[in-house]
Design brief:
This protein is 29% helix and 23% strand. By secondary structure, it is α/β, with parallel strands linked by helices. The protein folds into 2 domains: 6-136 and 185-261, Spore Coat Polysaccharide Biosynthesis Protein SpsA, Chain A (Alpha-Beta Complex); 141-179, no CATH class. Strands 1, 4, 5, 6, 7, 12, 13 and 14 form an 8-stranded mixed β-sheet that branches. The chain is globular and about 65 Å long.
């Protein structure tokens, strides 16, 4: 079996709107979160290139902030997309070496990915053209209405449930159905593809609405293999996620470390 040559694409052009500030620059044990994500791949001999897709409107600022550290690990920076994630991946594909056999796409805000998961994915990618990690969904899943309903301040039901708090008004969405969770998994990254397959998926018509790369491969009618993901491989979208990742990875916040150990 020929040796894998993996190019890793890390889309990092998002605005961190749900986080409320620059989440990729958050401290994780003395290094920015983004750098921790990149470092996970520098330990793999299969990886021949790491490509970080940065915000195009602040590309020079991004290079100034992260360029030296990323360059130390051999990572290159390209301009990402302005609106959707797939735009960043499509731009980064142009920087994938022609001799790369596979492309792995990994969320910039998933710094907790383990070497065990990477090994599992890369092993599977040698026998399957498209491989993604997935975690079984154990929670009960409800589909709700788009519309939000608000109970009036004098609503007797709201008062009965919440007392005085009910007088402030209660808003929420109504349940449409309970979704059977059998065979449902939460997709994670990195998602690993034969390079030619991913290029074909990204050249096949309208890409609008694609929330992950496997979705584009599925549209081609190609099979996607799901291997076991891991609970620690969470995506940081909120401050509570960041606190959880710090705990999982054993890092304290900057204020809890000596000043000379902060970045």
């Amino acid at each position: 079996m020929s040796q894998m040559r993996v190019a890793v694409i890390i889309p990092a052009a998002g605005l961190s709107s749900r986080f409320g500030s620059d989440k990729l620059g958050q401290d994780l044990g003395g290094r920015p979160l983004l750098l921790r994500t990149v470092e996970a791949f520098t330990k793999r001999e299969e990886v021949v290139r790491i490509i970080v897709a940065a915000p195009p409107e602040s590309l020079e600022e991004f290079r100034s902030r992260y360029g030296a550290q990323l360059g130390f690990h051999g990572a290159v920076i390209v301009a990402g997309g302005r609106k959707e994630r797939w735009e960043s991946v499509k731009n980064a594909l142009e920087a994938v070496p022609t001799d790369a056999t596979h492309v792995a796409v990994h969320d910039a805000a998933r710094p907790g990915v383990s070497q065990e998961l990477l090994a599992r994915l890369f092993d599977a990618a040698q026998v399957a053209a498209a491989v993604i990690p997935g975690e079984p969904i154990h929670a009960t899943i409800k589909r709700v209405t788009d519309e939000t309903f608000t109970a009036a301040p004098d609503d007797a039901v709201a008062d009965a449930i919440l007392g005085e708090a009910g007088r402030e008004g209660v808003s929420g969405r109504r349940v449409v159905e309970t979704v059977p969770r059998a065979r449902l998994v939460a997709a994670q990254t990195p998602q690993v593809f034969e390079a030619s397959l991913l290029r074909r998926a990204y050249s096949a018509g309208d890409l609008t609405g694609a929330t992950d790369d496997a979705m584009l491969v599925e549209r081609l009618g190609e099979r996607v293999l799901v291997v076991d993901g891991e609970a620690r491989n969470i995506k940081v979208t909120s401050a509570s996620d960041l606190a959880l990742v710090r705990a999982i990875m054993g890092f304290r916040v900057a204020e809890e470390r000596p000043a000379h150990k902060r970045f």
